[in-house]
Model the fold of this input.
Amino acid sequence: MRRMAIAVGVAAILLVGGIVPLGAQQPKLTLPGIPNPGVASYAPEIGKYGGTYVISQISDPRTFNPIVAQDTASTAVTGALFEALVDQDYLTGEIVPGLAESWTVSQDGRTWTFTLREGIKWSDGQPLTTEDVAFSAQAIFTDGVDNSAVDLLTFQDQPLRWRVLDKRRIQFITPRAICPVGIFLRLIGAIDVVPKHKLADALAKGGAEFNRTWGINVNPKELVGTGPFILQSYVPGQRLTLLRNPNYWSVDKRGQRLPYLTRYILLIVPNLEQSRLKFLAGETDFYSARPREFAELKAQERQGSFAVYDGPETFGSEFLVLNQNPAGVGSGGLTPAQLSWFQDVRFRRALNHAIDRNTIVQQVYAGRATPSWSPISVGNKLYVNTNVPQYPYNLDRAQQLLAEAGYRKGADGLLRDAQGNVVEFTLQTNAGNTDREAIGNILRQDFVKLGMRVTFAPEAFPSLVSKLTGSYRWQAIIIGLTGGIEPSSGRNVYLSSGDLHMWRPNQEKPVNEWEAEVDRLFEQAACETDQAKRKTLYARWQQIYSEQAPMMWFSNPKTQPAVRNTIGNIKLGLQGVTGTLETRYYKTVYK
Amino acid sequence: MLRHIVQRLLNLIPLLFGVTLISFIIIQLSPGDFLSEMRLNPVVSSETVEAMRRNFGLDQPLHIQYLKWLRAIFLRGDLGYSFAYHVPVTWLIGSRLLNTLILNLAALVIAWLVAIPIGIHAATRQYSFSDNTLSMTAYLGISTPTFFSGLLLLLFAFKTRLLPIGGMTSLDYEFFPWYGKVLDVARHLVIPATVLAFTASAGLMRQMRGNLLEVLRQDYVRTARAKGLAERPVIYKHAVRNAINPLITIFGFEIGGLLSGSAILENVVGWPGLGRLILEALVQKDLYVVMGSLLIGSITLVLGNLVADILLAFADPRIRYD
Done:
């Protein structure tokens, strides 16, 4: 600590004394034993040490093993305990150094060499080495270990390979002729580094044993990480208490070691309602408000001494999808007539014109959403294409498009196709999701105005999923997907061979020319290291999807984070994230 | 008596066998499984989902899955593994069991302490103003769902800041001395225990009133009064003791509900008990957590009834099991 103080003192003298010209490179910040620590230069303020930051979440964590953790309740905890070689800048979405201070890539783009920061220690004092990194990768590829990263890191059935060069350098080699180079760093960012000295025994006993290791019944002392916090205690159904990791490897702009907070507590509450009450009562410091709560919270800001922010759009969106899969024809599924309507792009475009996005935005999201025309959210500034064809709400235009495609509205007011079949179908969504149910009712009303006979029948989530991915016996579904920043994380949805290519999954060869083009665009983008070129490729894909309308997006809901005024370093980033945990601080520390 | 108890306990075995078999089939027959949500995750391939299904043993025929589960219980007392939490079901249930017991026992004690005197009071002053008021209140208690009264009281706690808003302990609970810990839990208990006790005591009080009124009309009560016995001994020594018999049966039922009676309320007020765990497991189809809690619930129900029957034998000399 003393050495650090001296280092800072010297830096101040240099600046004040004018020896270093103004605007010249800042003096290098160091930590004892860590010559090149991470510097939180993005944080707007220099914080104070101490204080407890309390938030609430709806579910209990399911595991503390970051390799196995998949649900957000678990990753909310493991995210504070573990880290990867690279990190994502929460403001821009760009990849920045994490545990690795730098990396190089070979000419052919297949061999990546990462160098660890010197002097990083696990929270139990052991040094972090590349052996730990290799071990973490090995855990992901071990048979029987439940994790989703394995699919990201396997390229056409060929796994990623790696080689430890020395204690600080490790190489990752991607398989020949496959090029995930464009997104490779993001994939590396998906591997949380875990300590080999703690987990090697469990992994040696196989995947099933590893899945159980570091479960929620673990002694918190066993959880050794490199993140800004360490777990002190977990009381099931009640709370998680995390303490500052005194070994953390990052500093603020003055060279003070992060994090600032002494304690970080996650309360487990049964529902959003209680989460809101606890925030309003001052028991918690943060609340991720729902769109319709924004106005009400805004009015209470002063009285409750908090601020609610007008956040950007999330990456997720709800959409309508029509079944175009011949395998879905049969009882409970499609009729041959329905299949031919849904496969007809003119029919889909007409329906798209009958979706009243403004009403959805107003009624479902209380105005806190932006109409969406593309698979990429408006909030994803890195990739969104805002110049795609749009389908403004216009029932006359929809009627006209249907007429051009041979559909006629009879004297009884019912729409019939050229063969005389009445246009009727069942629209479904998962029961209990009030947003989707409200959207379904809005859609049904407008579709009925076009002369269609539409039944809206919400159904339990598991059975809906088994229809979507198993029996294919469904007609029209409203559902949502959470998006990642890189479109390629949705390969399974957008490639014609994908399992989640909902309207016609697992195609051996692309059925439509436009689907073939999308497949090609995704492959090209995967090989493209230039961000700008990737953006162009994905822009073309969004254009195609909007033209062909296999999925009809409604809107991207906005975020409205509410934070207590006593909390510092609040700066909104992508998806309404309010800052990083390590730079968060208490403005007034009560003793 | 002992023979009867042993016999009843032996009867438990085929009963539990039937209960678990039927619930196992019903759970498995409903569409979808624990992995449904994962199937809709764009980054997870169907091969990975299938591999997990194999890990969980969900790919095997139903009867094999069921028999394996039974075998583990008989051999090791192992209730199986939670798919969601990667921990043994016994640990998961054990981590919540005590909390639910604390809540329900507190409610049980309050309910009986309140309901019996009020019931007696109401019966002895039939159709008086206080009887009518109490009856009205009881109807309100019976007809108000616990989630609603729970929400109302939470709102009250929020407005007045007199009580904590849900949960079971405060942030600094670990640092409190033992009496501080007791007080802290008691403070958090006020809302959920009141809600449960209100509903339970409403029914109990009506029962007590009805029973006592019936007994008071009996000949022996009239005789006791006729021979000049004071009103207090007539009621407390003779009438109440006879009127309380049917309540013992109810008591047995309530013991059976000690672990399951508060499920909905726990979800409203955030009490970290079994109810929240089980509801979540049901929604996610975390098979063995659901089965395990069903098993434990059935056992307590049967045992509760057994306890009631034994108590009845002690209270009523006319009842003999031999």
About this structure: Chain B has two domains: 2-76, 95-315.
